[in-house]
Amino acid sequence: MIRKLLCATALMSLALAGGCAKGGNGGGSGIIVSVTDESNGLKGISLAGLGLQIQITATVTGTSDTSVTWAILGSSCSGTGNPCGTLSATTGNTITYTAPDAVPSSPDIVVEATSNADKSATGDQNLRIVPITATVSPASLSVGKTPVLSQQFTAVAVPDNAPQDFTWTCSANGVPCVNFVVDSTFNGIATYTTQDNCSGSCVQISAVANSNPTGCQIDPKSCTIAKATIVGSRLASGTYAFQFNGYDNNGKPVAVAGTFDATNGSVTGGTETETTVAGTSTHAISGGSYTPSSADPKNSNNSGTLTLTTGAFPNQFIVVMDGAGDMQLIESDGHGVGAGIVQKQGSNPGFGTSNQTYAFGFAGSDPGGARVGMAGLVPIDGSGNVSGGVMDVNDNGNTTNVCGSAPCNLAGSYTYNSNTNVGHFTLTSGTTQHFDFYLAGGATNANNPLTIFAISTDPVDANHPTVSGTMVLQDSSKTYDTAGLTGQSISALVGANNNVSLTLGQTDGKGTFVGIFDQNNAGTVLTQANFPATGGPNYTYSAAGPSSNQNDGRYTIQMLGNPTASPAVPPLPFILYASGANRGFLLDQSSTAVMTGPMEAIPNKLAGLISPANMPGTFGLTIIQNANPSLDPADYFAANLLLTSPGNLVYNVTGTQNPGLQTVTGTYILNDGLASGSYTLTAPAKLKYAMYAVDTTRFYLIGIDSGVTSPLYLAQE
C-alpha cells in the first residue's frame, strides 16, 4: 500500500508517522517482532492524548515461541507516578497503553515489545504524549447580515480517538452572541446567526474538549478559534473573474470567461468572452446580483443565486461559496447545463510588473467536436512581449496538427487593462492564436500564485480549436529538474467520453512515481489501484524541457494504465507543465481520451496522511469539469455539505443539494488516514464516490459505482 511506501520515504514527522514503527528489528536468530497500534478502529495512532487508551499488538515470526515482554521507554519515564503512562500488562501479544494525565518534560516515548525467545529482537511503537485539543471549522469566513443569515461550525477533538464532546463559547465584541445554538443531537455542531449589533471582525467562536478542558491552554498552537467577519453581503465589493464550461440544449459546447465588479451584493458592470459553435462573441455585463438562499436557513450563508445581465446565455447560476467568498456555480437559466468557478481578484495581483512565467492548461474541442487539450508555459517580460514559451497539444490523439512537433515554441505579445481587468494574448506557435484573459485570485507570491482565466477568440478551424482554461504564475525560485519534482500531490483528470480519474502520487526526486488512483472510464471503474504493481512496470517521470538544462518546468510523467490487471497494463505518458513544486497542469500525451487537469501539491505538513478527525466542516460541492454532453443533467448539482466526526470510523455527511433543495445524507471514510477515501451517498440517491483530499479544506470526488458515468467534483470549505 502507498502508506508503507510513504513511510519508507520518511516524509512524515513523528506526529504523523503512526504505523511506521520499527517493526522488523530482528536478532541474529532470524526472529522478527512487528508492532502495530489501533484505537477505536483507527490504525496508525502516533499521538497519545492525555488519559486516552491505545491498543497495541505485537506479531512474532521466525519462532514457535511468539510471547513478548512489554516496556515503556523514554527519557522522562523514570520516577514515581507513571509520568509516561501505563500498560495494561507486560505480557501477552495485545496490550493497552494508557497515556498519563500530564505531558512529561520529554513527550516522545516508545512502547517496546521484546521477544522472549530472543531478547535482541524487538518491535517499537513511537508515541508523542499531547494534550487533547479542539479545532473549529471554518476558522475564518464572512457571514452575511442582510438578510439575516446563519453559518454552521464544527468542532473536532484531536487526537482522533479522543471523545468528541465539547463546550462552546461565542462572543460578539466581547459579549455573548445573541443567537448561537449548539446542536441538541451532537454537540460537535453549532450554528451562529447574525443577530448581533456589530460589524466587521467582531465575532469569536471557540470550543474546548470536555475530556481535557485545559488542553488548548497547554497547547494553543494546536487549537483553532473561529473568527467571523460580519458583512452586508457574501458577494463582497471588488473585482471578480469567472470561467464556465458546459453545453447548450442541443448538446453543443459553450465556454465563457469574464470579469465583473460588485458592490455589496450587486453586480455593477463587467465583460465576458463566450465561445459557441457559432463563434466567439464579447458581451458587456451591465448588471446583476447575488441573492442568498432563503429556503435553506442553516446553509443560506453558503448558497444562493448569481445573475449576470449580458443579453446572452448562460446568465443565471446556482452557487455555493467557500469561506473566502469564492464561488462554484452551475447553470440554472434553463438554456443548457454547465459549471464553473468565480474568484475574487487579489488586492495587488502584480501581473506584468516583471519577468514572469505562467504555466497553463486548456481544454476544448476542434471543428469536428473532438476533444482538444493544451498545456505549456508563457513567459512575459513586463513590457508586452512573450518569448521563449513552449506548448504541447493533443487533438483527439494527434499531437502535431495545431503547432507541429511537440513541444512547440511560443512567442508573441500581450496587453492588459487594469481598469477593466481585460487582457489579450497573441501567441505564435506555427499558427497564430488569440486569447482573452482575466485576472482572478492570488498575487506574485509563491504561496498564493496569481491565477488567470483565459479563453481562445479565433474563428474555429483545424489549426484553431476552441479552448479555455487556467494560467498560474510559476514559482521562479524553483529548479525544475528531476530532483525538483519531489513530494506528494493530487491529480484530477478529465477526458473524452466520461473518463475521469483521481491520483494520490509521490515523486522521489530521482524519477520514480508511486501512489494510488481511482478511475471511472464511462462506467468502467478501477478503485484504489496501487502503482506500480508488484512485478509490473515502474511508473517514471523526468524533466523534459526543450532547453539544454531542461529546467523550464516541462516534465514527462507516467500515470493511469491498469496495475491490477494480469499482466499489468502499462501507464500512459503525460506531459506536466509545473507552476511550482508538485503542482501544475497535466496533458495526456497521445491518446484520444485527451485527459487533462491540475496536479495540486499536498502541503508538506500533511505529508500524504490526513487525520480523519481533521476533515469535518462546512463545504460547498459542485461539478467542475465534464467532457461529454451526454452526461446525466442530474449530475449537475451544487450542494452544501456538513461533515461531522461523532467519534467512530464512519463520519457523517448531511446537507442540501440544488436544484430542488434535496436533502443530502451519507458517510465518508478516509482510508487509514490517507488523503484518499470514499464518500457514500444515501440520499437523494445511493451513490459512492472516491474522495481525494488536497488538504483539510479542499477535496476532489468522482463517482465509482460500476456502470454509472461521472464528472469531476470539487468540494471546498
Q: Which strand order spans the largest sheet, edge to edge or round the barrel? A: 39-38-37-36-44-43-42-41-40
Oligomerization category of the chains in this entry:
single chain
CATH class of the largest domain: Mainly Beta
Biggest sheet details: 9 strands, antiparallel
- The total tally of domains equals 5
Structure description:
- With 717 residues, this protein is mainly β.
- The strands form 8 sheets. It has a 9-stranded antiparallel beta sheet with strand order 39-38-37-36-44-43-42-41-40. The protein has an 8-stranded antiparallel β-barrel with strand order 19-20-21-23-24-25-26-27.
- Strand 29 (371-380) and strand 30 form a beta hairpin.
- The two termini are 29 Å apart.
